[in-house]
Amino acid sequence: MHKTPITLDTLNEWRKNTMVEHLGIELTEFGEGYICGKMPVDHRTHQPMGLLHGGASVALAETLASIGANIHVDATTKACVGLEINANHIRSVREGWVYGKATALHMGKSTQVWETKITTESGDMVCISRMTVAVIDKK
């Protein structure tokens, strides 16, 4: 775990001037082995047919899994980076917000595996993703 305390405000500061901020992703909650966030379904996240872009769902999933992984290592010596991600798109969404919860399935010394479930405001499944993260030494 991080040597310095992490707050939700700190995590949301990490979004500044990144794709995460551009897509409107907000981090809403985190704890031991999980992290939650939300993303608007609007002009920033639509595909040409007016639906939530699958790539935006994957961006939300990777954001949550990556940040979740990074808050569970000693950030003075380690960093977590995406190694592989997959996603199954279950339902389309045209507007509103989608909500993601990433949960650690495995937290090893050299890899972590995170599962992210993305749902609508009413709780319907939109996407499920699994991401493998490499835990690397900082140089």
From TrEMBL:
<dbReference type="GO" id="GO:0005829">
    <property type="term" value="C:cytosol"/>
</dbReference>
<dbReference type="InterPro" id="IPR006683">
    <property type="entry name" value="Thioestr_dom"/>
</dbReference>
<dbReference type="Pfam" id="PF03061">
    <property type="entry name" value="4HBT"/>
</dbReference>
<dbReference type="GO" id="GO:0061522">
    <property type="term" value="F:1,4-dihydroxy-2-naphthoyl-CoA thioesterase activity"/>
</dbReference>
<protein>
    <submittedName>
        <fullName>Hotdog fold thioesterase</fullName>
    </submittedName>
</protein>
<dbReference type="InterPro" id="IPR003736">
    <property type="entry name" value="PAAI_dom"/>
</dbReference>
<comment type="similarity">
    <text>Belongs to the thioesterase PaaI family.</text>
</comment>
<keyword id="KW-0378">Hydrolase</keyword>
<feature type="domain" description="Thioesterase">
    <location>
        <begin position="49"/>
        <end position="126"/>
    </location>
</feature>
<dbReference type="InterPro" id="IPR029069">
    <property type="entry name" value="HotDog_dom_sf"/>
</dbReference>
